[in-house]
Structure to design on (526 residues):
């Protein structure tokens, strides 16, 4: 078991396991940054879809009640673990071992927005829709063998620092936008606003104009992480891991899977540009990225 | 394969099957039938399916399947018979206007009717449930009186209360829980539309009838939801 001593800013149990209940409107959920989530699980020998913690801005403070391995993957300068009352400074991005009573102290995430904490065995999830952790809450862990210690050979892909390019595929309603509107979208910079969360990133920037006879409304249809919706206000919204399963705003583009971890690490004030690629290119980029991940751990 | 069907890439890991662009029970029955066929055949690498009014979004694992392979699979599906599913009539009590329906006035003004007339026209039809989506258990209903249709709000609200009944374009629906949203809210029901054990109160193929109730009745029903507290 792990007990939450400090919840951090927002810490959420996440799993990449699929439930196939989207047709009842149940959000797919899952990690915002699948790369760091996957690496954290690998460092503790977990299956690729084990439930781990996703922390934003701050790591949570935790107390462990049994012998476990854990790993934090993210931009964290150093982890502080209380072992028999003694403070130990330990690095992120590698397997660490704890004994009953050991505590991980809360600390800020120094780069990007999100870091992932995986525990060997994985967290037992009792709900389809996990809620942010509360202080005092106890998380049950699944049984698991202690893994051989490992560390990331290289840092994961860098987090954006102030600006990023997100590669996209032309949207299923691209023709609902005027030529000028599409030029605006692909040519201008958009700023990450604080009204963003796991459901979606709201960007602000030059308004995107619609083609003659269209506005932001469409007959509602299936939506997924990566979709960029444009309501009639003309300001794009990038749907993220907690997004709804359907929506009624026109989609100008879809961020490619390989760049979703970049979007997940953006912070308020960061600026992005969008660049179009083909589905074929996007899938080749993803294959390359996964091969690189396999070289890291 | 149906001749009115188009396949579109939905990003780099989904395909949209697009049927005729209209809200109709016939078109929607085709969507539901294809959804069942995909789930029934479910080859390795297909991760999810979202049926909507006139589209079916099929999500795949791009590390295992290419876009072309998924299109081939979908084209190879023979359109199965749309089977009649025995839906039920669900009566949903709604307290209209006031604090529960902050946009009732705006909808009335847009439609050129009194608020009472909007309520009468909203409670008149039997609405078919076309799809669930947006939030767990959220029904997308057909059959809204076109005279009370009203465009979505230009800027969505950051938070809409659970149970809120809304109109957006030619659609009407109920928010199962508090969430952001752009629909015009005309009232609220005390019923709960989703929980994790029984999943969704409404299923595609059901029929919904709204019934206007007073605030007293609303609270009387709401108090009985002991499981809520």
């Amino acid at each position: 078991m792990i007990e939450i001593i400090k919840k951090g800013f927002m810490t959420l149990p996440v799993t990449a396991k699929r439930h196939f209940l989207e047709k009842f409107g149940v959000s797919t959920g899952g990690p915002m940054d699948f790369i760091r989530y996957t690496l954290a699980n690998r460092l503790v020998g977990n299956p690729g879809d084990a439930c781990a913690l996703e922390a934003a801005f701050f790591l949570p403070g935790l107390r462990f009640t049994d012998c476990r391995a854990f790993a934090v993957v993210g931009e964290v300068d150093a982890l502080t673990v209380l072992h028999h009352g003694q403070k130990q400074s330990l690095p992120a991005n590698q397997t660490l071992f704890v004994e009953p009573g050991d505590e991980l102290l809360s600390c800020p995430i120094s780069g990007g927005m999100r870091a992932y904490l995986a525990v060997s065995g994985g967290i037992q999830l009792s709900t389809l829709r996990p809620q942010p952790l509360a202080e005092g809450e106890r998380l049950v862990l699944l049984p698991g063998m202690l893994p051989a210690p490992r560390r990331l050979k290289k840092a994961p892909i860098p987090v954006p620092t102030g600006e990023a390019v997100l590669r996209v595929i032309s949207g299923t309603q691209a023709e609902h936008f005027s030529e000028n509107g599409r030029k605006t979208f692909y040519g201008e910079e958009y700023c990450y606003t604080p009204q963003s969360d796991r459901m979606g990133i709201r960007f602000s920037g030059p308004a995107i104009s619609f083609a003659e006879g269209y506005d932001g409304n469409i007959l509602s249809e299936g939506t997924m992480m990566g979709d960029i919706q444009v309501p009639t206000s003309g300001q794009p919204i990038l749907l993220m891991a907690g997004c709804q399963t359907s929506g009624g705003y026109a989609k100008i583009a879809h961020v490619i899977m390989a760049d979703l971890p970049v979007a997940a690490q953006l912070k308020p004030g960061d600026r992005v540009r969008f660049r179009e690629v083909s589905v074929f290119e996007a899938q080749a980029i993803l294959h390359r990225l996964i091969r690189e991940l396999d070289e890291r751990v | 394969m149906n001749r009115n069907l188009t396949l579109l890439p939905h990003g780099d890991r989904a395909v949209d099957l697009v049927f005729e662009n209209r809200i109709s029970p016939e078109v929607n029955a085709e969507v539901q039938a294809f959804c069942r066929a995909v789930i029934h055949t479910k080859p390795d690498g297909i991760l999810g399916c979202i049926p909507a009014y006139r589209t079916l979004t099929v999500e795949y694992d791009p590390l295992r399947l290419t876009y072309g392979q998924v299109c081939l699979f979908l084209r190879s599906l023979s359109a199965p018979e749309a089977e009649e599913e025995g839906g039920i009539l669900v009566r949903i009590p709604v307290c209209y206007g006031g604090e529960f329906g902050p946009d009732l006035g705006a909808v009335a003004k847009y439609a050129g009717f009194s608020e009472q007339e909007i309520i009468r026209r909203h409670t008149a039809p039997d609405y078919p449930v076309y799809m669930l989506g947006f939030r767990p258990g959220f029904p997308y209903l057909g059959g809204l009186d076109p005279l009370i249709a009203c465009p979505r709000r230009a800027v969505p609200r950051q938070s809409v209360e659970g149970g809120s009944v809304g109109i957006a374009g030619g659609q009407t629906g109920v928010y199962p829980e508090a969430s952001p949203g752009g629909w015009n809210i005309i009232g609220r029901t005390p019923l709960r539309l989703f929980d994790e054990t029984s999943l969704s109160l409404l299923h595609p193929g059901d029929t919904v009838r709204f019934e206007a109730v007073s605030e007293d009745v609303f609270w009387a029903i709401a108090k009985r939801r002991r499981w809520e507290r």
Remarks:
- The mean pLDDT of chain A is 96.
